[in-house]
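Appendix B.2, paired examples.
Example (i):
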Amino acid sequence: MPDIPTYPEFIQLLDDDIVLLTALILTVNPKCRTNDYNVFISQLTLSLYLMTQCQLKLRHSMTSLAQTLDYIKVAQRRCPAQCTLDHLTLKLTKRKVLSYDLTLKPVLIGLAVLTRVKRYLFLDNDAT
């Protein structure tokens, strides 16, 4: 499967999270600079990350996000152990999906409360 390099020349073209993970890997373990697996991200991993970002920004359904989580699990199993950036990116992507579920619930609860308040105000205005 094709890999995308995260060399300094390409950093400006990548997402902030990918750049941050790359910098973190190279800062924590300078030996990773000599191993090509640590400065490349697979096309599958990058595609899953970008697809998930689009789904979250477009507020896709939880069913769609659950399917994406299944794809992430499959990609994690297929990814070789030495591909550090791939593993970290897939973990980050999974966490973003799971945290999206937690941030969505208060919004839905807030909308339900707002709807009840509007109904109450609407009914109150009809009574006068």
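Example (ii):
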Amino acid sequence: MAKYKIDSDLEKEVQSYMKDVLSKLKSDNEKIDETYTAALTMLAENYNMFIKCREQIKNDGLTFKDRFGNVKTHPLLKVQNDSQIQAMKLFNEFGFTSKSDGKIGTTESNEEETPLTGFLQNKMKKEVR
């Protein structure tokens, strides 16, 4: 079992955020296993990439002139956008957005079990090889 460790190479903002994420997961009594470790690493790396791109674009500007004098958008805008999309997907998975906040732990035990929910629950319990 791998334990998630916050990488010291990450931006300070990301390190601080990831500490908050770990605190929230621990307060929610979530067990941080290999699945969480990989997802948390991806979350931190994508958020870190977003911040680095944002800072570079802030320094360089949204556009630049190529060698022919044509105005082009900054190439890091695409990288920043892709990192933001991936980070938001992970924020949603962990329930860290107001929209997804209610998704985690909302299954009530008094709900009537349908054949579909029974199938899905048994399918998720089976060992994957």
